[in-house]
Amino acid sequence: MAYEEVVVKKPLLLRILPFVSVGVFLLLWEWVVVSGIVPSVLLAPPSKVFTLFIDKLSEPNPDGAVLAVHAWTSLQEAFIGYGLSLLVGIPLGLAMGWFKIVEGLARPVFELIRPIPPIAWIPLTVFWFGIGLTGKVFIIWIAGIVPCVINSYVGVRMTQPTLIQMARTYGATDWQIFRQLCIPSALPMVFGALQIALAYCWTNLVGAELLAADTGLGYLITMGGRLGRPDIVVLGMVSVGISGAILGFIIDCLEKKLLAGIRR
Amino acid sequence: MNPSTDEPQLKILCEDINKTFIQKGHIEVPVIRDINLQVAENEFLVVLGPGQCGKSTLLRIIAGLERPDTGYVALDGFPITGPGPDRGVVFQGYMLFAWRTVLGNVEMGLKLRGVPARERRSVARHYIRLVGLEDFENHYPHQLSGGMKQRVGIARAYANSPKVMLLDEPFGQLDAQTRMFMQHETVRIWEQEKRTVIFVTNNIDEALFLADRIILMEGKLPGRIKQEYVVNLPRPRDHEDPGLLKLRTTIAAATELVL
After folding, report:
1. What's the CA gap between B77 and B59, in Å, rounded?
2. Mean pLDDT across B120-128
3. Percentage of chain B with pLDDT > 70?
4. Is B242 found in the same domain as B182?
5. What is the pLDDT of residue B60?
6. pLDDT tens, B143-187?
7. How far apart are CA B109 and CA B158, in angstroms?
């Protein structure tokens, strides 16, 4: 019989556990620095990072920009690069999964480029585009496109062969099968790619900024290192972590919404 | 299509069908051997045999999903060269589109052929009502039970108004009780909308309950037709009917493997 979904509420203990774990982690961290187990020139305690965070909201020195500018630069690069990698990678992967010609043409090149770490492109992108936005967008695009292509390709390939045969018994054309069968059944894999590509993009963005940038969260970390300021380094790392987690959360919500109708 | 003759119209003709599969590149596995078969219009034919006897392959050849190595298959006198909407197939797994509602699944074939939305909707609704799912047309497959899913599969095959319905162990995944209920439903649906049916099963009771005629396959590869039985009993049938039980004994005796 058809059924309604039932939501079971988690017990209180399980719901507060995440807060407990983060709290304990912060307290331990504060304690190891304040008690002197780890010297404060090597690591900044969370309280100091928080004070610096408040300062950096309005204070551009010593690294040249306020925190929001760094974050905005990074986000901009990430979004453009991520968007472009989805835009190119997903259709390419889907087409590679179904059309033998596309697979034959695109796959060898893709397999050759795939094992090269995106960061290895940095010197070339500096030659080509300098240290501005375009170069980093290119790196991020390279990073993001790989999971998009692979997941979309595998998603199409995993289409139930019997479903394809069934569509053929209805006289469906290749194109109809691709559009109405392969793409919908590849969607869960494609949505998976959204998350994976975002993670790839974000980590490689920071990597790119460490080497070639004049603003951005990665640049903030590098500057903290050059200035011997562990608090700046940690603030940069925490900002990368938190903004990455927020982005991941947003994509996760989008993914759930989009998947709601097609869940098995 | 000649009502003046008593001879039933020949619908499906299979002549000297042979099929060998190649496994692992070189091992030849003969799957069916010298199959000759004629199915009349609106006949309910059951192909009975254990697993691995080539019966599904025979069905897939008639569906056009496999090409026979030798032999001739025809529908209404025209050779079958590939799959087509004149043969509706109900697969063993439910094979529904998970991202479409019951209605969306049933109208799929019509949509692929470019039937306008309003028309295909009304056709789809007719068959959804026929299989008794009118209250569930906006449900998704994951919200349905196994029996309901296979009703959708039957409605979907009917919606294309095929000349022949090909069912490949459609109730194999259902529990015994649901299976029996679906057999009753199959008879009811078929009596309301007569079609030529080829129904593949490994279940002797299912065969006896449904068939006008039973083709018994040999219990091993390559698949050959071993015997043919005409079941001349009124429907709906009773599993305890003495005539049916007598025939059951005969068929069971002819079967080397326990079905």
Report:
1. 18
2. 92
3. 96
4. yes
5. 92
6. 999 889 999 998 998 898 899 999 999 998 888 888 888 899 899
7. 10
Look at residue A2 in the predicted model and tell me its pLDDT.
Answer: 54
Q: Which two tokens stand for residue A175?
A: 């194109």
By the CB < 8 Å criterion, does A259 face chain B?
A: no
Residues A221, A206: contact at Cβ < 8 Å?
Answer: yes
CATH number of the CATH domain containing A142: 1.10.3720.10
d(CA A133, CA A121): 15
User: Could you list the residue range(s) of the whole structural domain that residue A255 is in?
Assistant: 42-262
Task: Determine the residue type at B23.
Answer: Q
Average confidence (pLDDT) over B75-89:
90
Specify the length of chain B in residues: 259
- For B183-204, the pLDDT digits (tens) are 998 999 899 889 999 999 999 9
Residue A32 included in any domain: no
Residue B153 shares a structural domain with residue B27: no
- B224 assigned to some structural domain: yes
Give the end of a domain, one of B140, B161, B182.
B161
Residues of B in CB contact (< 8 Å) with A are 63-65, 82-85, 87-89, 91, 93, 95, 97-99, 108-109, 111-113, 136, 139-145, 148, 160
Domain that holds residue B128: 90-161
